[in-house]
Amino acid sequence: MAESEYQTVIGLEVHAELDTASKIYCGCGTAFGGEENTQVCPVCAGLPGVLPALNRRAVEFCVMAGLALGCEINTYSRQDRKHYFYPDLPKAFQTSQFDLPLCRGGYVDIEAGGQAKRIQLTRIHIEEDAGKLIHGPAGTRVDYNRCGVPLIEIVTEPDFSNAGEVYAFLEALREILLYSGVSNCRMEEGSLRCDINLSIHREGEPLGTRTEMKNLNSFSAAKAAVEYEEKRQRQVLAQGGRITQATLRWDDARGLNYVMRSKEDADEYFYFPEPDIMPIALSAAEIQAIGARLPELPQARRRRYRETLGLSDYDARLLTSAKAFSDLLDEAVALGAPAKLCANFIMGDITRLLGEAGLPPERLPFGGAALAELTALIAQGDLSNSMGSKVVESLFAPACAGQSPKEIVAAKGLSQVSDQAALQAMCRQVIEENPQVAADYRGGKTKAIAALVGQVMKLSRGKANPALVNQILADLLA
Amino acid sequence: MVKAGASGAGGGAGGGASGKEEIAAWSMTQAAAGLARGEVTSRQLTEIMLERIAASDNNAYITVNPQALAEADAADARRRAGKARSGADGIPVALKDNICVRGLPTTCASRMLANFTPPYSAAVAERLAEAGTVLLGKLNMDEFAMGSTSEHSYFGPVKNPRNPARVAGGSSGGAAAAVAEDLAYLALGTDTGGSVRQPAAFCGAVGLKPTYGRISRFGVVAFASSLDQVGPITKTVADCAWALSLLAGGDPRDSSSLPHPPADYIAGLRGVAGLADAGGSGYGGGGGNGGGRGSDGDGGRDTYGNGTVFGAGQGGRPRIGVPREYMGEGIQAEVRRAVSDLAAKMAAAGAAVEECSLPRAEYALSAYYVISSAEACSNLGRYDGVKYGYRANNYDSLEDMIRRSRSEGFGDEVKRRILLGTYTLSAGYFDAYYKRAQQARTLIMEDFRQAFQRYDALLIPTSPVTAWRRGADFADPSAVYAMDLCTVSVNVAGLPAISLPWGTDGDGLPIGAQLIGAPLSEALLLRIAHGAEELGAAVNSRRPNAGIGTGPAVGAARDAGAGSAASPASGSASSTGAGSAADAAGDAGAGRSEGGRLDG
To answer: How far B386 CA sits from the closest chain A CA (Å)?
Structure first.
């Protein structure tokens, strides 16, 4: 039978570290990259006799994520212990949630291959992160800094049928988590990780045996791993083989999955309710209050850009693709800046210059106030668009650090000349130096005026106000 | 064993009025009074205790605090400066070795933690330190608090001070033995299934297991988190009440601790008078439930002594129920007779006492062993040889290192519980065991809830038998587990309960009577227990005589000496003692809040 008869069924488990100041059960900090074992206390190190005290903020963040993703929030939920032995897990159990998670259901709308699709979520629960093993020539060390950093695990229904959908989902999910402010979603720091379950089957037949791919640390790795695994499974079945249940690990460098463990050591976690932490009870009013703190999410923002700011759907999508961009726009607009002009700078010069500097949008060296000031200068006719671009370049330049657009314009003499007398003098000079063009214009070739305007702009080194020059030339030639 | 020579060593201690033996035999309340009067110093009390600990061979202590005398001197200096932290400032105390104290080994009597020194102190250790007590050391126990004999210790078994051939009970056997042999004025144990009450009963001491959550568990090495509770072991009920006043209260570090402010547990103690009138306790959930009494039509209900059954207008009399499930088969006849005797005497003193029923009692033992083993297997997973504690010397992989470290580091009883817990939590067995145990737990709690609509307290034996021989060869482990019959339901339901001595058996071994109260009813429970204690002054010999042997002759000798041995403790403690205890508790409260400010 042909490979193409098989359908792929994929479900995801996404782990996102919550951006709380302290860990989930103790007061230790959560900052990434600290020196080994400097953010550790007896509680997160699991020493004998210590007890966890739940960080309410972690619960609130999970509820915010749940509300942002359309989940139903359970007013009564509980934490459970999930047991396994590994040196990075100091208590030999991970405190997680088993049968009573904080959030149930929910969905993410995606667009992949030109088609809209809704991916249903099963649940979202809170749990604690484990530490990290550091393998070196002298042996293996354990760093417990990450131990007890709060996580949410987002489990989807098996709604995906290809790698493109997985990729689109991860992008959309990341965007929502970033907007809701619960996670910084930095994949390079492990703040967002995903496990993938994949099986293939023929339509109308039961689901096939699935394999699980662990800890995919980038969207492109997730996509590549899915493509690799579905192809592998198809080949196995095509050759009359059987898929065996296994946990795989993706090797990004080599572009293949390898087996971590097979079914013989199937997961047995001895779950039972965590007796040291009381159940989490949330009233409807508390859930509502948490929801009220949820910032505007990307879909709502796009709608507002179209409907209130009059931007095109295309602009709205581009601007919201990075929260930092859309925050920049909102800041500038709040200070009275024209939305379209701001949008053009963000999508044009700013995006280009960030790319050249190799910076992510959130590392933009200036804020909405600078953009508002810049666009105000242009709107008032004190600065041309092209000079505006030069100001943006200067805003990126370390030499101009801390300078406002006005200061840059003054320092570099970029101000647009709108002085009537000065412009009239320049226009007369250009008419005198280009008698033939002037004659053409007078003879009815109205387009010839553009050449004269260009000459004036050149003479002014770009600082002349082109609209005013046009007007003066027309008057002089009339 | 008390060495006669102790009285000749280190002259000067004790001042003119009291000899060392007498001072050592003081209750905590009496010792506090001695300090307050200037009759003794903390250094003298501490030296006497340290000498006795060094001379004793009951193996009650695992670690003696090298700082004890320095702490005593500091307490004396505070007292001289008029800055005593509380009435308990300078009182020598000891802690079971599963209660962490910063800088002192906390071994849990296990090879696994033989070299573990915590960098933090348990909340209860902090509270005692804030009250100014002197820490004598850390007490022997069953490994990780699993056992009923204190024989399962990496540091050897504890001997019962009443008879060294007998077990001290467990798991807080060191705590009970220390108090019974005058090696501490107060010892803290932990009670997961009877581990404070049963050894107190075996050694002839008073042991209180407070309501679950009444005392912070922070820093107490977990055995079974939903059952563990710290409890004091003392010589008198008043001392227990005082200790509870020092220890009770919420703690943000322990989510299971109760925020309810502790009561003044001493103010309400009234001796026998408390058995005629339980009023003023502020607790009395059953007051409006008179209509329900007798509605089960149990016409054959036994009554005790005065034939009292509940009737109108008895709101002031404490109502005591005696559940028949704990007074029948499987209970040693002498134990049954002793508890019946106490019931009759309480009735004669004015309490309304009657037989009652806890129909689901039979499930408690099984539910307890399933739940406690499940939680234990989880709590003890962290001892893997990776971070601290015992690590095997030879291993050929990470997995092998963990396996060998646990195999070599844990004793047999701990391994048995871990295996049991692992089994009951396994996929496919969870519903059959753990889930059903939790359901049974709900039923047991409901039994008690109904009982406490009728009764202020329930009276049963603490242990079905008296202390058995050390090294006794039980046919199978569950036969030993069955000895926990009378204590575990209290933990399963999270209730407060107190064991107090009530006479001895034919071998002269102490019998413990257990009073159980409704949640957070410690004040009332202690008042009733205080009355019972006073009733018992004539039948109890509080402490052992020197030269303990075995056999009935010794028991008779002790009974003969009971008059003189018991009267200074129980006689004066219940009149003058209670008064000074109340004063001291007032000081204790002030001391604690002052300590808080200093820390803050």
So the answer is: 6
Q: For chain A, which residues score pLDDT lower than 50? A: 1, 3
Over residues B114-136, mean pLDDT: 98
| Catalytic positions of B | 96, 171, 195
Q: What is the 3-state secondary structure (H, E, C) of B172-196?
A: CHHHHHHHHCCCCCEEEEECCCCCC
Residue pair A150/A61 in contact by the 8 Å Cβ criterion: yes
Percentage with pLDDT > 70 across chain B:
80
Task: Inspect the interface and report whether the beta carbons of B402 and A85 lie closer than 8 Å.
Answer: yes
Report how far residue A82's alpha carbon sits from residue A92's, in angstroms, rounded to the nearest whole number. 8
- Is residue B228 one of the residues assigned to a domain? yes
User: Based on C-alpha coordinates, what's the Rg of chain A?
Assistant: 30
Is the model more confident about A136 or about B192?
B192
Interface touch A91/B120, C-beta < 8 Å: no
Counting the structural domains of chain B, the total is: 1
pLDDT given for residue A182 in this prediction: 96
Per-residue model confidence (pLDDT) at position B332: 94
Q: What is the pLDDT of residue B304?
A: 59
- Which residue range forms the structural domain that includes residue B244? 26-269+552-599
Provide the shortest C-alpha distance from residue A383 to chain B (in Å). 60
Whether A42 sits inside 8 A of B402 (CB atoms) is no
Residues of B in contact with A50 (CB under 8 A): 120, 218-219, 253
How many angstroms separate the CA atoms of B530 and B552, rounded? 29
Total length of chain B: 600
H helices of B228-363, where? 237-247, 333-348
Three-state DSSP at B114 gives coil
What is the pLDDT, as a whole number, of residue B574? 31
pLDDT in tens, B66-94: 999 999 999 999 999 999 999 999 999 99
Give the number of domains in chain A.
3
Give the best residue of B379, B390, B405, B430 to mutate against chain A (max A CB count within 10 A).
B379
Q: How far away is chain A from the Cα of B503, in angstroms, using its nearest Cα?
A: 37
Residues of chain A with Cβ-Cβ distance to B226 below 8 Å are: 275
* Contact state of A272 with B378 under an 8 Å Cβ cutoff: yes
Q: Are residues A85 and A212 in the same domain?
A: yes
Residues of A in contact with B378 (CB under 8 A): 81, 83, 92-93, 270, 272
pLDDT of residue B146 exceeding 80, the answer is yes
> Within a domain: residue A289?
no
* Predicted complex ipTM: 0.83
pTM beyond 0.90, yes or no: no
